[in-house]
Design a protein that fits this description.
Layout: E1 4-6, E2 23-27, E3 31-37, E4 40-44, E5 48-49, E6 62-67, H1 80-85, H2 92-105, E7 107-118, H3 124-127, E8 137-138, E9 148-154
Parallel strand pairs: 1-2, 1-6, 2-5, 6-7
Antiparallel strand pairs: 3-4, 7-9, 8-9
């Protein structure tokens, strides 16, 4: 079993090693290498194709979970933004809440969840109440136009 789960990896944009052997890369989507702009390519090739609200792993499987869900509701279905980042649809608030709970479920006791959110369309203050616990720490500052937040959560002792 791998040590780290990326529950919605997309094209693994922020990973230095996109084939890190310690990471189980998951996504609901796959996409063969596609040119989305002249000379720019994207590929979505997870190890496991699954929905982050229903992960196919036993309770307490991972030491670290990365949760970087889609953060756009207003994007064209075939737009570059939807292709790169996915899209929030339907009851997306319920989906994000269920995804957070599922990510916490597969964490080992005292495991760490890293949550990434971009405030392009929805402020972090709208998202955090959807989760069952508050983050321990992270960057909440919007200085210099930075709208991307990285937050850290820790699972308690009990499974």
């Amino acid at each position: 079993m791998k040590k780290i789960l990326d529950a919605c990896c997309g094209s693994k944009m922020f990973w230095f090693d996109k084939n890190n052997p310690d990471v189980e890369f998951c996504d609901i989507r796959t996409l063969p290498r596609t040119e989305y702009y002249p000379g720019r390519y994207i590929e979505i090739c997870p190890d496991t194709v699954c929905d982050f609200t229903d992960l196919p792993f036993p309770d307490g499987s991972f030491y670290l979970v990365v949760f970087d869900p889609p953060h756009l509701a207003y994007a064209g279905q075939t737009s570059i933004m939807a292709t790169k980042y996915g899209k929030l649809e339907g009851n997306w608030r319920g989906m994000l809440s269920a995804g957070f709970e599922e990510c916490m479920r597969v964490l080992k006791p005292n495991g760490v969840l890293i949550f990434k959110w971009s405030e392009i369309q929805f402020p972090l203050s709208t998202i955090l109440p959807l989760f069952s616990q508050e983050p321990l720490f992270g960057n909440r500052c919007r200085k210099r136009g930075n709208t991307t937040h990285w937050l850290c959560f820790m699972k308690g002792e009990k499974l």
